[in-house]
Amino acid sequence: MGARLELADAYLHTPGSDPTWSESRYVDFYDATARVGGWLRLGMRPNEGHAEVSACVYLPDGRVAFAFTRAPIGANGLAAGGQEWSVGEPYVAGRVRVAGEALLLDDPWLLTDPRRAYAQCPRIECELDLVTSTQGLAAVMGSDQEHIEKIFLPGQADFHYQHLAHITGTVRVGDMRWQLDGRGGKDHSWGPRNWQAKIYMRWLICSLDDDTGFMLLRAVGPTRSTRSGHVWVGGEFAVVDDFEMHNAYAGEPHHELRSVSVRIFAADREWSASGQPVAWLPARHRRTGADGVESILRIVKSPTMWTWPDGRVGVGHCEYHDLLQAGVPVGLAD
Length: 334
Prior knowledge:
The chain is an all-beta fold. It has one helix at 114-120; strands spanning 21-31, 36-45, 50-58, 64-72, 79-80, 83-87, 93-105, 123-133, 159-173, 176-192, 200-209, 212-220, 225-233, 236-239, 242-249, 257-266, 269-277, 281-288, 294-307, 313-325, 328-329.
């Protein structure tokens, strides 16, 4: 048995001494009726004096509003760069608000060349006010931190938890406004952060309702790999023993995910589902090694419609990380 999460772990933690120490909060969502999705992340890096602040909204017409900034901070906290998180009842309720300017991308793949995207794309004002509802500590992957060894690689974070979420509230992009009723996933990590601790990673999130869904993670690193996650079915939590995954990708130039199917095993039970991404946004992380060679990790995030064998439909996100070799994602065979 590993360390158990406490109520205090839903709040802020005292930064460690590692220069890369980070406290990160993330939520994604998709409303299939409005055909609006998105994701928000606040990554506080107090030892480096800044926060990584990201906001993304997928519009029904295929355009994407996206913002990223490294906002200056003086200490660890819950707000930076126009994004503010608040914790209500731990592991049950929270709120995140965003106000600021974003790029408006007619073609989201233009972001593979950020310099060009920032030079060419217009800006648009965005406001989000979202309430997150989750099912309590019993539904949390990471309630026992021994869970994290099953999904994370060394260097991703020392501490982490994740759970499915029901997200409601308002989204405004320019003069377009939606009342949101969506679903997705939510996570919270703290500790030293190395974005390139993995060679590639697959994070699959599906939520049908308050009682049904899954979060799966496949990660491959230089010394270790993982394949696990959790299911939440009938209001019961189970750690995944293993899962099979079959991905279909488009060809050049983007090799984007077109469909995914999974077969999930936990104890003596089994589930399956198939997913269809409805949009894509490519982000990236660049790092120059001691040898002067630059490596690029591509991060593509896709709101996804999921179908279960009985015909029920859920929503969520697929998030696929790949180091690039000669511009090609390395994990296309998995």
